[in-house]
Amino acid sequence: MTAIEPNATVAVVGTGTMGQGIAQVALVAGHGVRLYDAAEGRAVEAARTIGARLDRLVEKGRLTAAGRDAALARLHPAARLGDLADSALVIEAILEQLPVKQKLFAELESVVPDDCLLATNTSSLSVTAVAGALRLPGRLVGLHFFNPAPLLPLVEVVRGFATDEAVAERAYDTVAAWGKKPVRCADAPGFIVNRVARPFYAEAFRLHEERAADPATIDAVLRECGGFPMGPFELTDLIGQDVNETVTRSVHEAFFHDPKFRPSLAQRRLVEAGRLGRKSGRGWYDHTAGAERPRPRTEEPCDAPAEVTVHGRLPRACAVVAELIREAGITLTEAPGPEAEGYLVLPGGAELSLTQGRPATTEPTGTRIHFDLALDYRTCARVALAPSATASPADVRAATGLFQALGKQVSVIGDAPGMIVARTVAMLVDFAEDAVGRGVAGPEDVDTAMCLGVNHPRGPLEWGRVLGPARVSRMLRNLHSEYPDGRYAPSQPLLRRAAVEESLL
C-alpha cells in the first residue's frame, strides 16, 4: 500500500491553528480538502484564513498565482460531518480530550468508507486509546504534526497497538509525498520528541531551583556552549509555560510518576501565577514593553596563565582544548605518568577538568574546578566553570583567564553536579537510548525527530557516540549517587551499550 492518490480528498476536522496548517499542507500538495468544525461558521472562517496565507506565499514568490487559485478551488468548508463521506484520509485536530476524540471517530466511522484512513494529530494522548472505541481500530494512526505545520518538516507517524502495519505505511508514504519528513514510532507516552526532550527543560529548571545559576546564564550556556538555538527558559516562554508544563505532567502521569519525568515546582508556580510567557507578558522573563532582558553572568577579563600542565590524556570530548591552549601561545607541558582521565593543572596547583557528574568539592584529590561540555570547543562562544569550595579567587581567575585567552566568555556558576550542558546532554542520551531499547523508534528516527522537531544541534544518539556510552553512563551513575531518587539512574540499554564499549577497550 502506497500514499493516497494525489486526487484523493483529505478532510481535516478541527480548524484551529494546527488544523488550518495541516489543511494547507494537504492543499498545497494537490489534494482536495474539506474543512469541518463543530462550531458553526468556523470552517468558513478557516478557509478564508488559509486563503490569506496562500496570498502571502504568492507575494513571497513561494507559490504562483495560478497555483493559489487552483488550491482555493479545491478547498471546501463542510457544514456537516456527513460531507466528509468521500474522503480517503481524515485528520483530526480537535481538543486534547480522549472522550471527545473517541466520540468524533466513532461518528466518522459511520460516515466514511472502511478503506478511509483515520488519523489523530494528538500530541499527548494514547493513539491506542483513541482507537479503542472504533469498530475497525486498525484503520487509525497518529500523525503528529509540529506547529506551524506548513513550515516544520517533521511528522511523527504513530502506530497504535491495533494499527494495521499497512495503514501506518500508507500514512508514512502520504506524509512523505507531501514533502514532509516522517518518522515511525510506537504508541508510547510523548512519542519521540515529547518524551526524549523532557530533560532539556527539566535539568535547567532543577539547576535554577538549586540556585546553581540564574535563567539567563543557563540559557546562555546552553546556547553559546551547547549549541542549542534557544535556552529552555526563553523557549518555554515562547511555547507558553502552561503548554509546556501540561505536556510534562501528562508524560509524568503516563509513566506512573517515574522520577525521570518529574515536573518542576518552579514552573508550576509560574503557571499558578499566570506568568505564562510571552503571551501573558511575563514568564521566566519580563516581556512587557521596554523591559530590559537580564544578562547572563559573564566574568570580567582576567590574566591568562603563562603555562598549564596536562596530566594524562584529556577526554576525547574536549581534546581540542589542548590544541587551543597551544594556539593561544600558552605553554602546555605534559606531565609524565598514565592517567585514566586527563586534566589540566594551573600554576597555583588547582586542577581543571571536564565535569564527570560529581561536584568539584567532592573530588577525591586536589582543588578542582570543573568546566562544562561544549558542542565544539573551537567554535563555542562561552564556557561555564564550577569551582570547588576550596578553590581560591586566584584559582578561579586563572581558570577564567585561560578560557578567555581561547576566545570564550566565561560564566562561573555554583558547584552543580554535572553542571549545565553535560548534565542535560547525558540525560538526553539516556532518554534516547531508553526509547530505542524499548522499541519506541529506531535510532535514525530518534535523532531525526530531535533535530527537526526541536532543532537540537546534534541528535542525542549521535552525541552519545561522540562522548562514548561509557562516559555518559559513568556521569549518570555519579549523578545518581548525588541524587539517589532514581531520576539519574542510567537506563539498561545505555548500560549495555557502555558494557560493550568497555569490553572492546
What does this protein structure show overall?
The chain is of the alpha/beta class. The chain has three domains: 9-187, NAD(P)-binding Rossmann-like Domain (Rossmann fold), CATH 3.40.50; 200-272, N-(1-d-carboxylethyl)-l-norvaline Dehydrogenase, domain 2, CATH 1.10.1040; 307-412, Transcription Regulator spoIIAA. It contains 19 helices and 15 strands. The protein has helices at residues 17-28, 42-59, 65-73, 98-109, 127-131, 165-177, 193-196, 198-209, 215-224, 232-239, 241-254, 265-272, 320-327, 393-405, 421-437, 443-453, 460-467, 469-482, 492-504; strands at 9-13, 32-36, 75-78, 89-92, 117-120, 140-145, 154-159, 181-186, 307-311, 331-335, 343-345, 351-354, 368-371, 382-387, 409-412. The longest helix is centred in the first third of the chain and has 18 residues, at 42-59.
- Report helical residue fraction: 40-55%
Class per helix and strand makeup = alpha/beta
- Computed Rg: 26 Å
The averaged pLDDT comes out at 95
> Could you give me the name of the CATH homologous superfamily of the largest domain?
NAD(P)-binding Rossmann-like Domain
